[in-house]
Amino acid sequence: MPISLTLDLEDRARLRVHRATSFARFGVDAFVTDRFGGVSKGPYESLNLALHVGDDPDDVFENRRRVAEAIDVSPGQLVFVDQVHGDHIAEAAVHEIGERADGIVSSRSDLALAIMVADCVPILLVDEHSSDFAVVHAGWRGLRGNVVANAVARFSDPSTVHALVGPSISAERYQVGPEVADFFRDLPGAVHPDQGDRSRLDLRTVAALLLVACGLVDQQITVCEESTDDARLFYSARGEQPCGRFALVARRPS
Hints:
This protein has about 250 residues and is an alpha+beta fold. It is about 15% helix and about 25% strand.
């Protein structure tokens, strides 16, 4: 069974972040932001990191600057991509910031990687035997597609990769129709019956099962207990519209 984990609260510069402390043993500094500590206003209050949701770009850039400070890089070293619910994994050492992708992989110590979510699953992948690490955005479309497999394929040996499955919407709050549920019915524990033809989909269980199918060792997968359900701590697209995006942020300093 995957390991269940509650992230550790930690003060970083002007932010309070939710740190994956157990990944420090691999030389990885990784945390999840929440919706507090930024300058955005209205429905984006306050640490929205997304430029595509209608927020003031100046506010978003200031929020990103604060996250960069918290992970100890310059704003230009905090790498974002243009997420499109696809399966492309960008190489942070080569491609420009803003590439259309739903995952970022790197081995550079001077870059921090950020993947944004608001109910979808953020995933961190870390190789214990090399400097390679990656962050992945996986909603139901990405999980149905190849985004997890494509990310794991960027590592030489899946059995040495450790994964963190971050905060997302829970199965109790994620109702889907048969056109979505049917993709995942063969995965044990992924789909739960609801009223009529509706089902509840457990995205984090799907992510963990797909990671195992890609060759990761079950005990090297950590699943966060936190969820986006009430939209109070983390942004939730199902909880409110419009809304901001929080991020899983990771760096592997030398």
